[in-house]
Amino acid sequence: MADPHGFQKYTRAEPAHRPVPLRLLDYREVYEKAPAGQIEEQAARCMDCGVPFCHEGCPLGNIIPEWNDLVRQGRWKEAYDRLHATNNFPEFTGRLCPAPCEGSCVLAINDDAVTIKNVELAIVEHAFEKGWVEPVKPTFDTGLTVAVVGSGPAGMAAAQQLTRAGHRVVVFERDDRIGGLMRYGVPEYKMENRWIDRRIAQMEAEGTQFRVNSSPRAAELALYDAIVLATGTPVPRPLKVEGADLDGIYPAMEFLTAQNHVNEGDINTTPIDARGKKVVIIGGGDTGTDCFGTALRQGAASVTQFDIRPRSPFTRAETTPWPMYPNLFRTATAHEEGDYLITGDESADEIAALGLASRNPASSMGERRFAVNTVSFQGEQGHVTGLIANQIRIVAGKREPIEGTEFPFEADLVLIALGFSGAEQGGLAHDLGVTFDERGRMIRDNEYRSPTNSRVYVAGDNGRGQSLIVWAIAEGRACAAAVDADLMGETALPIAVTPQDAPLSV
Ligand SMILES: Cc1cc2nc3c(=O)[nH]c(=O)nc-3n(C[C@H](O)[C@H](O)[C@H](O)COP(=O)(O)OP(=O)(O)OC[C@H]3O[C@@H](n4cnc5c(N)ncnc54)[C@H](O)[C@@H]3O)c2cc1C
Ligand code: SF4
Questions:
Q1: Whole-model pTM?
Q2: Which helix H or strand E contains 121, and what residues bound it?
Q3: pLDDT by residue (tens digit) across 116-135?
Q4: Measured from the CB, is residue 262 less than 6 Å from ligand 2?
């Protein structure tokens, strides 16, 4: 039973973010640890609703009010058990999820939502500190083999569930490390890659085998009893305007991946360096915003993010909770860093504390512009020097340029962050006979099975289209249950989402 007065006693409070001038000096996570007692108080704000809308918001089916109440009482181990029952990787969602559960929280009808995501992160980190997160080794061996292709959150979740169900699971990853977009897309200031490594160690101890630098062929996979394709949507959506092939214009993922390789220690400097450059990011979503924070950290002279969408007229309070949820105007932490002038005034102690020898005092400015459409790029000697854009407005649900608003804008590094156009259609998918819909997504039935190859299952962004980590984990878990049921005739693995389930926002 929750504290019925908790939300009256405590207002919403979140752990602080590291000061902008300091965090721009490195790629460490921006979040500070919550002060002692804060998480318990925040958990006490949960009303344990009769109809908890937060459940509807979360595709994992997290039992949120139960773990909130356990945390309130300081019963962390039980809270961890409840959390882990529905989410294999709360340390990923606790850092990276936009928290549709909070968008759905009933308390947000006339107050601020419960800080569900922070409570989730605190539970799992507490569990790691206490040594409660141990390998869950399977109690029997089915002797059956499953190949999981792709090691993003969908592949990792499917692999962990299937290994624990007693199958012999091999994860094939063509990159040099495990983690998918969480590793090489998401910058470390949002989530440090060591948390992925920590989870991989648990999975290896449970018996999951990982093969990196490995792009299996259909013939190799024929040896397996089932194949889970969790290959994501790696094909970037291009910007088809004049001049888009000039040097200095890159897909966002190339830029982000290169910096992540620097952070991993693979290379000393990034081949796409924003230092001292006038950077323009085309695209206002997650990926563009991650470029924004990364370019500021690299010491760009200026960073401007163009979003084709108009600035939302709504505040969070006006659009929360579900069912109005969530036409939200979200602000990523990187946007706290825009408009911030780095003067080089950081003290020598501050710089030394961060282990840095010195800092380039060049000023970095970040700015977001809304309702901007890119018309063309201009260049000199084959290299981009700027672009022409105009303002747009929405008429009858369609974007149209506003006459007379065309403007030039200087740029010597342009990052295209327009999302992804779907799953890869050639290669392995083709050889396995997988089919695709008109949006480039792999077709699967309601049990995640390819209708054209009954040994092949599809989970994550490659079937859903580009989405969120929480959906990838939910799909990976549910897909594992479908595989297990087909291999064994029955399954005890949980299914929280089907391929047809859509986020509440749609
Ligand atoms: C820059 C960026 C930032 C993001 N930030 C967030 C965020 O903050 N919060 C959030 O919830 N979501 C975020 N997302 C979305 C999120 O990362 C994805 O929805 C999620 O990672 C999808 O998981 P997945 O397992 O389906 O695919 P991916 O994570 O894309 O993993 C697919 C893996 O399959 C591998 N692969 C592909 N083909 C083959 C093959 N033939 N053989 C072997 N391996 C193969 C790829 O190398 C890759 O490692 C972000 C996305 C991007 C691009
Ligand atoms: S909707 Fe909010 S207040 Fe209600 S149970 Fe869920 S987290 Fe608690």
A1: 0.93
A2: helix 116-130
A3: 999 999 999 999 999 999 99
A4: no
